[in-house]
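Researcher: Re-running this chain for the archive, since the previous output was lost when a drive failed. Same request as before.
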Amino acid sequence: MSKKISVVVPVFNEEKNIENIYKAITNELKNYSFEIVFINDGSTDQSSTILDELSNNDSRVKVISFTRNFGHQAALTAGIDFATGDAIISMDCDFQDPPELIPSLVREWENGYKIVYARRSFRNDPFLKKITAQWYYSLLYKASEVKIKGNIGDYRLIDKSVAVKLRQMRERSRYLRGLVPWLGYSYAIVDYVRPKRAVGKTKFNWLKMLRFAMNGLLNFSLLPLRIGLFAGIFIIFSGIIFLIYLAYRYFFDNQFYKLLEWLAVVNYILIGTLFIFLWFIAEYIGKIYEEVKGRPLYIIQSLKNIENNENSHAQL
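Model: Regenerated structure tokens:
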């Protein structure tokens, strides 16, 4: 095959997985021209040393090292920025994105699809994580203007023409799972069973997952803003029913109610509603604030086997 495949792999304290994932990817792509772009996202273990050794021994291994941890989405963005392949595959380093699926992704790309998603038909995750993920993706699909398929993570292949457009999208609140389908290119889906993490512990704790989920909802859905309308209509409607009820009991049953008792309850509900609305407004203002600052998405400390190019948008 004359075309080149780039594999983008973010790394954050994955010293036990790096060499194995390198060997697995190399084995799957042995019949192709390829490069592996590792992004060292501020690792504090021996990941940097291992990546340096790999890049010294194999010129196909490219290493982008950040000055600190900028996050998974920023790392993926950097990898896509610097990748030079005709197709770019993004995947995690922990073997939960199985490398043996790579040939299937490439075949669908060769069939003419610009984007090939890897969809988890089954997740070997704890019950709570599986059920919350199912609820979240269902809500995101129904609420989003761009229909984002459920159980599809960041394991995907994109054509270089898609990457060109993606590099132009520089918003700070990154949610690539929404940005890629937003582009609207033709796509195929390859199903797989998501295995358990090979070694080590996940770096994606509940707080990070919550922030990531909020990015998906706030960046690709107006539902949080519309909740205020729905709640307002419900409160007004229920208030009218309550007024009719009071009038009926007053005129026909001679029943007397202390108005202040009811107003206290209604006030309490309204105060809680206002707090929720203020929270949503604060989330949107925070995102506007991040965009206005215009800071770079990541800062690069060093490059190995990579030349800075016009695609990178990098700050050295």
